[in-house]
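> example.struct
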């Protein structure tokens, strides 16, 4: 039995050898290039959350710079952040849904807008993304909330980078 299994594994690995150098680096593997990508939290800032909006923009723009290739002459991508929700409970507890009073997820609501060179909207997509409140690290550290907001901003940009290929197609 062991000898037959070894032969099958050997045969399978030999058959897979031609695929060893294959990669998926075609047009489908990366988001399209934009002339600029910007995370804009001005709507959130106008609600009175200046400090948090600044953190969202800093973390979101850094993540966008990492994920989206820029090219001259392409359309612009603006990710507008409308709201951020941090749950009051940032840890797992032993309770059921009847006694918890809510979830332990943080969330961010944003809209990606693709704009052409003439300022016309080509397309847009709304998104609500969430993370476990523990994603910002230890709840007892003094900078817990800023880390949670930054994690949400990065997560939202990451989801848009995955969705953006089908956004205008």
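> example.seq
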């Amino acid at each position: 039995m062991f000898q037959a299994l070894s032969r099958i594994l050997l045969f399978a690995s030999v058959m897979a050898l031609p695929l060893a150098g294959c990669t998926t680096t075609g047009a489908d593997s990366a988001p399209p290039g934009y002339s600029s990508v910007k995370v804009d939290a001005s709507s959130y800032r106008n609600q009175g959350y200046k400090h948090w909006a600044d953190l969202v923009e800093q973390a979101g723009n850094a993540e966008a710079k990492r994920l989206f290739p820029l090219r001259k002459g392409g359309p612009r991508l603006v990710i507008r952040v409308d709201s951020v929700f941090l749950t009051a409970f940032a840890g797992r507890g032993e309770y059921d849904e009847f006694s918890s009073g809510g979830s332990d997820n943080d969330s961010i609501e944003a809209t990606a807008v693709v704009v052409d060179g003439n300022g016309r909207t080509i397309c847009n997509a709304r998104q609500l993304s969430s993370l476990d409140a523990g994603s910002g690290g230890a709840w007892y550290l003094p900078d817990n909330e800023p880390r949670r907001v930054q994690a949400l901003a990065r997560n939202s940009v990451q989801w848009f980078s995955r969705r953006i290929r089908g956004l205008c197609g």
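> remarks
Residues 16-29 have pLDDT under 50 and may be disordered.
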